[in-house]
Amino acid sequence: MTTIEYRPKTPPAVQNLLIANCVVFLAMTLLDQMCIYELFALFPVPSPFFEIWQPVTYMFMHGDFSHLFFNMFALWMFGRGLEQELGTKRFLIYYLVCGIGAALVQLGTAQIDIMRLSEASIAYQQYLCTPTVGASGAVFGLLLAFGMLHPNATIMLLIPPIPMKAKWFVVIYGLIELIFGVSGRMDSVAHFAHIGGMFWGWLLLMWWKYQDRKRYRY
Prior knowledge:
By secondary structure, this protein is mainly alpha-helical. The chain is built from 9 helices and 2 strands. Strands 1-2 form a two-stranded antiparallel ribbon. α1 runs antiparallel to α4, α5 packs across α7 (136-149) and α8 crosses α9 (191-215). The chain is globular.
């Protein structure tokens, strides 16, 4: 009798992350959304809603279906190959480090902005009550990893529909996020969190590269 091992097309970490994000979105749709936001979205540290677990939980929450769809599409598109290359354990560590790193950068930039405001101002109170949600920081880390591991791979853009090498795609996307973050354009988007996800991803890849060289030095 011959046993055939079944290997799903989508590797386990990516598959479970997709399911987790969709389940959380469904829960937010069916249950008390405000209560879920107050507990699990990422709030600035001075906010009365801030909790220590939010730098992890925020990345499984999304504001609307399009937000969820595009993040999950990017996770599925880039994550499958990266998980097969890095291995499930390393891939999951990488994804979480990028997401948590993005949260830390977002908290830092929010703190700088808050320090510029008067505590008695309406803007100060609004800032404290404005949460950050989404897997974008972790997803931007995946984009960076793909660009570093496959710099000359061709990516077909949607708008405009032109091919571009992965290394230039990552550089251009990172510069756009930096420009938007510094200029304050599209202030409803956490641009510095996206850059933070890429930065922490770069640090982790460099650390792994150093560790592997040190481990297998002849």
